[in-house]
Amino acid sequence: MPGDWDASSGPLRLAPPEAAGFSTADREERADVVIVGAGPGGAAAARALALAGASVVVVEEGPSRRRYERHFGPAMRYHQQEGGAMVALTSPPIPIAAGRGLGGGSIINSAIAWRAPASVLDGWTEAIGSDAFSSAAMSPAYDMLWAMLGIATPRLDIAGENNTLIVRGANALGYEGGYLERATPGCTGCGVCYYGCPSGGKASVDTNLLADAAGRGTRIQAEVRVDRILVENGRACGVSGLMSHPDTNEPGGRYTCKADRVIIAAGGIGTPRLLHHAGLADTLGPALGEGLHLHPGNAVLGWCDHEVMLWKGATQAAYFHPPDMHGVLPHTFSAPPEALLAMLMVTGQDTKAALSRLKHLCGCVVMVSDTGSGSVRAWGDGRARIAYDFAYSDVERIKTGMFHTARVLLEGGAREVFAPVHGTGSYTSAEQLRDALAPLTIQDFVLYSSHPMSSCRMGRDPLQSVLGPTGECHGLGGLFVADSSIFPTSLGVNPSLTTMAMATLIGQRLGVAG
Amino acid sequence: MMLRRRHLLAVGAIVALAGAASAAGVVYSWWEQPPDAPLRHLSVDEVAVFDAIAEAVFPAGGEPALSGREAKVGRYLDALLGGMIPTQRDLFRLSLHGLNTLAYAQAGATLSELGPEGVGALLRGWLVSSDTNLRGIAQSLHVFVSMAYLAHPEVSPVIAAQFGCGFGSEPGGFGHAG
Asked: Is the CB of residue B86 less than 8 Å away from at least one CB of chain A?
């Protein structure tokens, strides 16, 4: 029974829940609370509300059934928002990954788990004028999730050489670092978390929070792209959208769910995109979609004499903190061969030769807690329209982080290092890479993001924020947000666990308030 | 329509992460299509351009021996576009025409008219161009072409020795998406 779980029971591992899916017929239902988004935020809020006895419906854009695809392309098509083609239109463009389906981002992430730094939560308490998400308030939710998701460092036999190389290099240099704690209690180390876990070892939220909520009566409607927030008498009272076939995008019937309260948990891009597309920009105020942070990152790679196979072992399972730097987090990455070949920029027979050499690559991505920011709107066809402005200081911090990462790679066993940055080459010392990066601008970099946040931020002032400390929007009663878009500032660490913790608190408080 | 900077950015964007690669079920068995089979989204000329790029990135010989043209990369991409929403599809094709026009301006022939060495020389230049958008488009097309090539059932098993989780003997990995 779902109700039997407590922290002493060990990780909660359930079968993914059943969900209604695509149909050409219209469908309508009713609930106390309707939640848009079945990812970490939506699942956590749904479970908290279900525990409080509320009738809950979760509406999800993505497929009703998860599917492990063995190749990069179809995997992204099936389990990423907008087919994996969401990009911040800046120079250089920044691709942004965001998951879809039951489990949302937790289907395609590496399950890295960090509690928010106390300094960040202190700043948020000040920003929102409430201790609703202080360290003390968040701690019980973090503790519960830590136990439920089975968060731990990887077993050494599946850690993988790329991760071990980083730990070895960081330790040798005296840098703080080690293996990352991840929500992967059954991990077998196959290194393709971003395809969707093939072994079932990852604690994606469909197998715990969402399944538990479903076991308590929560209904799930997938394959619906919500495009309307229903409003009556000045309050949100439901959502509506067209069903969409998960493989062909074929439109189906219209789905409507009426409810006393509406929670949007579609993620740092999906939530502001939806609210703009639904025509609520004037209602929700000028902060809607503003303040987007991305945690942009750039890779540093190395060639080793020994075989590394950076795609084998626990995905993204090692990190270090560069000395005297805040908000820069280098950690390992994995990538499919087509992405690695593009980083090498080879053609002709060199491409085929490179295929056999990829196993000697090691790599680490340098992620920055950005002070630069952007915005999210919606194009006419409903896709996300994303802009972003870099801050000069962020670029300089990325460069310094790359220098330290090169040091770690070389110390850990790489023979030479390089970065997919225009105007640079391969180097046998970190200082050479640092000197090559020094004159370059952000346009020379190849950046990537999988942590969109802060685009519907929480705060006191309706002109500067979208919602208050309860999670309810300033401009529209009955409308709540519970995902990473509510973060008042950039978090600085992987956001999934903090999203779940905040959504749990929002759901609990809403459940108590009735 | 006048092309503005934001259009170029959008083109770069659509291909920036070739993961955009929304293959969907319709990609299934692209390698089995006869040469005269009808195309879904691309023209014959557009497929020829993709095949020319694929041949330059993956020439015949070596390991795996199959060439990019033999792998029918153009047909893979034709099917792949079926999983995209129309505006994404248009941007993808626009990027292709942009590169083909640039090839004519730089080399006096389109990509499908140049041989693999000519296309390879252009591509290598674009991959290290000082123009961010050109570089991004070229890198992204490189990923798309590689994605198609590596998914071919004659190629996938060859590299499965390294990439065991993602590759294997199943045809292209699209088996249950059909």
From this structure: yes
